[in-house]
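Budget justification aside, the reviewers requested a transparent look at the raw inputs and outputs of the sequence design task funded under Objective 1. We therefore reproduce one unedited record. The lines immediately below are the structure tokens for a 531-residue chain.
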């Protein structure tokens, strides 16, 4: 659906550029009429007014500005818009000050217009105001500000549409708004195209956002807009034709126009109501299927929970039942070691050692399984505000003997003083990672442990890095797997990092590792924070 939406927005933007090109052509034709003295191009259709040179130049500048915006040339867009803005600003001031400020015939001397009727070369007030708003909208678009600009342009779109219909049906009141405010037919058409071009260009934003929606609301908006553009001239045309050609009374002509509009509206309404009905049926069916799927999923989840609980119970029972025999075996080997070890040859003594060691490993495995089961049953705790420095100092004090033995050095770079997290879990994470950094140190150098914390979007990032033995890429890929160990010269169970990863992910966080053999290892942790 996202691809459909983007394709629709691209089509609307392309239509916007086409409309801008049409407005540009109208402006060029008008300029041609002035420079080559072609009356039909100056006045086009309609009985009143001509497109002044300044008006044509401003429409030309706005059209090029829209095209530049499409080409991502925002600098050119702003420059053209500002130049046109200045021309319109001075023209509007001339109306309010009732003075000639020299802009009317700056680019061309108008000897055609009767100065007793209107100032030669001066664009109409409506044209100047409309183009003024268009230039502001173009500049706003370059700064991604759409809402108010679209609203103002939509207002002038309605005015220019009314002016265009006035010329189309000869209704003077629609295109003549007082003295010096007559707007020519092709000027109204060009401004209408420019306004529509502006509205469609960024239809995915602002007030026009619904217009580019691929959903039913967007389809209804586009159809309603087309219906408005179509039915208004039909209604007006039929009404005027009934009055002038068929000699209808105003009431009869109005009723006839209403019936024609009904004949147009009813099929369109029928089509849309059918679509809405089908969509509603599909929605109801989809909701029903979704409810059934959710119910099935809940049953499956409950079954899975029961199975997992049963497996945990089996493992727990097995480990619990094995504790007694294993403790007995451990005691037997201990007694054998005391009573008869000295009476056996070395090779037989080795057998007792292997047996005792195997029992000890089995005991540790059962303890690890019990710890894993307990960790799965522990829910996340309510986060609290934890000061990092006191917590790290507490962990260093706990590991002081290992730190002294290895001559380890700690470096802190804390850009945030605290984090929101479960204290017991954060302490476990830091303690485990720092302990590992001390255990798996390089024999060639004293350990250096760098601990940093910095705020990032949505949370805080912690980093614990050392200069220890390091890991290969293959080892890194399996590092958080249960019971995986890569350095056998140090005692361990292979579940610490597994439990750390599980704990962090239970709180919505992430942990990642980067490492280089004989250089060191770095753990990066993201913890979401309260906002």
């Amino acid at each position: 659906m996202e691809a459909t939406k983007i394709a629709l927005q691209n089509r609307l933007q392309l239509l916007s550029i086409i409309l801008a090109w049409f407005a540009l052509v109208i402006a060029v034709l008008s300029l041609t009429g002035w420079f080559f003295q072609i009356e039909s191009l100056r006045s086009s259709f309609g009985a009143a007014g001509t497109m002044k040179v300044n008006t044509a130049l401003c429409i030309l500048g706005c059209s090029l500005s829209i095209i530049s915006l499409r080409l991502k040339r925002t600098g050119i867009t702003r420059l053209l818009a500002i130049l046109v803005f200045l021309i319109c600003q001075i023209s509007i001031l001339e109306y309010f000050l009732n003075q000639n400020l020299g802009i009317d015939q700056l680019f061309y001397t108008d000897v055609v217009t009767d100065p007793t009727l209107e100032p030669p070369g001066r664009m109409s007030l409506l044209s100047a105001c409309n183009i003024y708003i268009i230039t502001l909208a173009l500049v706003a678009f370059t700064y991604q500000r759409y809402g108010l600009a679209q609203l103002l342009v939509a207002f002038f779109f309605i005015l220019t549409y009314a002016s265009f219909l006035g010329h189309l049906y000869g209704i003077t009141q629609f295109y003549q708004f007082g003295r010096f405010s007559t707007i020519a037919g092709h000027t109204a058409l060009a401004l209408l195209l420019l306004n529509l071009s502006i509205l469609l260009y960024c239809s995915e934003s602002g007030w026009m956002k619904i217009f580019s929606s691929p959903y039913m609301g967007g389809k209804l908006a586009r159809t309603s807009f087309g219906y408005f553009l179509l039915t208004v001239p039909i209604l007006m045309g039929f009404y005027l034709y009934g009055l002038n050609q068929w000699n209808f009374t105003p009431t009869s002509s109005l009723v006839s126009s209403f019936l024609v509009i009904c004949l147009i509206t009813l099929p369109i309404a029928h089509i849309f109501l059918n679509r809405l009905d089908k969509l509603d049926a599909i929605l109801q069916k989809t909701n029903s299927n979704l409810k059934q799927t959710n119910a099935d999923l809940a049953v499956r989840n409950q079954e899975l929970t029961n199975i997992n609980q049963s497996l945990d119970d089996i493992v727990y029972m097995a480990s619990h039942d094995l504790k007694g025999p294993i403790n007995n075996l451990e005691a037997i080997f201990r007694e054998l070691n005391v009573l008869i070890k000295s009476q056996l040859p070395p090779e037989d003594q080795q057998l007792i050692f292997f047996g005792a060691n195997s029992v000890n490993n089995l005991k540790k495995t059962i303890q690890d399984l019990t710890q894993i089961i307990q960790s799965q049953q522990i829910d996340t705790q309510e986060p609290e505000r934890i000061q990092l420095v006191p917590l790290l100092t507490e962990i260093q004090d706990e590991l002081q003997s290992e730190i002294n033995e290895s001559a380890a050095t700690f470096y802190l770079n804390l850009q945030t003083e605290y984090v929101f997290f479960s204290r017991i879990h954060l302490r476990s994470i830091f303690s485990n990672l720092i302990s590992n950094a001390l255990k798996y140190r390089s024999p060639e150098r004293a350990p250096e442990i760098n601990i940093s914390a910095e705020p990032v979007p949505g949370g805080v990032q912690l980093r614990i890095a050392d200069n220890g033995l390091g890991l290969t890429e293959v080892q890194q890929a399996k590092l958080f797997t249960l019971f995986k160990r890569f350095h056998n010269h140090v005692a361990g169970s292979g579940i610490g990092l597994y439990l750390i990863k599980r704990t962090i992910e239970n709180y919505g966080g992430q942990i990642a590792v980067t490492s280089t053999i004989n250089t060191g290892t770095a753990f990066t942790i993201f913890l979401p924070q309260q906002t």
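The two ends are 32 Å apart (CA to CA). The chain has a mean pLDDT of 82. Computational costs for records of this kind are itemized in the attached budget.
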